[in-house]
Amino acid sequence: MYRKILKPVFDFLLALVLLIGLLPIFLLLIVLLYLFNKRNVFFFQERPGKNEEVFKIIKFKTMTDQKDASGNLLPDELRLTEMGKFVRKTSLDELPQLINVLKGDMSFIGPRPLLVSYLPLYNEEQKQRHLIKPGITGWAQINGRNTITWQQKFEFDVFYVNNISFLLDLKIFLLTIKKVIKREDINTAGVATTESFKGNE
After folding, report:
1. Residue 15 in contact with residue 23, Cβ under 8 Å?
2. Residue 146 CB: number of other CB atoms within 10 A?
3. Packing angle between helix 23-36 and helix 7-21, nearest 10 degrees?
4. 154-167: pLDDT as tens digits
5. What was the pLDDT predicted at 151?
6. Under a CB-based contact definition with an 8 Å cutoff, are residues 44 and 57 in contact?
7. How would DSSP label each residue in 46-111?
8. What gap in Å lies between CA 37 and CA 84, rounded to an integer?
9. 44: three-class secondary structure by DSSP
10. 23, 113, 134, 154: least buried by Cβ within 10 Å?
11. How far apart are CA 58 and CA 46, in angstroms?
12. Mapping DSSP to helix (H, G, I), strand (E, B) and coil, where does residue 20 land?
C-alpha cells in the first residue's frame, strides 16, 4: 500500500508545498546563475526512469559552455563557476527536480537517474534499479554518494528497491538533510564531476 499508493501521494504533495515555499530561493538562484553562467540557468538531459522509460531531468546549470579554440568544451573544472560550486555543495542544483516529481517522472527517494548510455552496461541485478521511479536522493546517496564505487552504489540501489518502506524513506530523508547541512560526499577529492560508469569487469 505504501509503495503503490501513499508514496506517490506524498511525493506530489511534498513537491507542491516545497515549490511554493521555496519560490523566493528558486527565483534568486535563477537571477544569480543567469549572471554567473552567462545566461544559462537550467540543465536538461534525458535520463531513464521507471521501466527504463526516458524523461528529461531538470537541474540548475553549474557550468558555463565555454569552448577552446577548436570549438570543444573546456574541462569541467574550468567551466564550473564559483556560484556553481556553491550550488553543488549545498545541493541546490537539485531543486528544479521538484518539477520532475510533480510530473510523476521521479520520486523524492529512489535510485538516482543516471545516463541513458549506461543502460546497456548494467548486469541483470543492476537493472533492478529501474523497477521503480528514480529519486532526488536515495540509499546510495546517504551511504557515500560520490565517494563510493559504482558497484557499491548499485548494490545500495537494489537493496532499496527490495526493501521500500515508510521507515526506510524517513531515515533516508532525515540523513539526506544531515548530509546537505554538513556538505558531505559531494565529489571525490580533486575531481569536479563524478567519473563515468564504464561497465562491469
Report:
1. no
2. 15
3. 70
4. 999 999 999 999 99
5. 94
6. yes
7. EEE-GGG-EEEEEEE--B---B-TTSPBPPHHHHB-HHHHHHHHTTGGGTTHHHHHHHTS-EEESS
8. 8
9. strand
10. 23
11. 9
12. helix
Measured CA to CA, the distance from residue 107 to residue 131 in angstroms comes to: 13
Identify the CA nearest to 154 among candidates 165, 143, 164: 143
Q: Name, in order, each residue with C-beta under 8 angstroms of 11's C-beta and a sequence gap of 6 or more.
A: 101, 107, 108
**Do residues 139 and 156 lie in contact, with contact meaning Cβ atoms separated by under 8 Å?**
yes
In percent, the amount of the chain with pLDDT more than 90 equals 65
Cβ proximity of 101 and 12 under 8 Å: yes
pTM over 0.70: yes
Mean pLDDT of the chain: 90
Q: How far apart are CA 54 and CA 72, in angstroms?
A: 27
Strand pairing report for 54-60 and 107-109: unpaired
Question: What are the strands, taking DSSP E only, across 97-188?
Answer: 107-109, 135-137
What whole-number distance in Å separates Cα of residue 47 and Cα of residue 115? 5
Task: Give me 141's grid cell.
Answer: 546517496
Cα gap 4→26, rounded to integer Å? 30
136/141 Cα distance (integer angstroms): 9
CB 22 within 8 A of CB 93: no
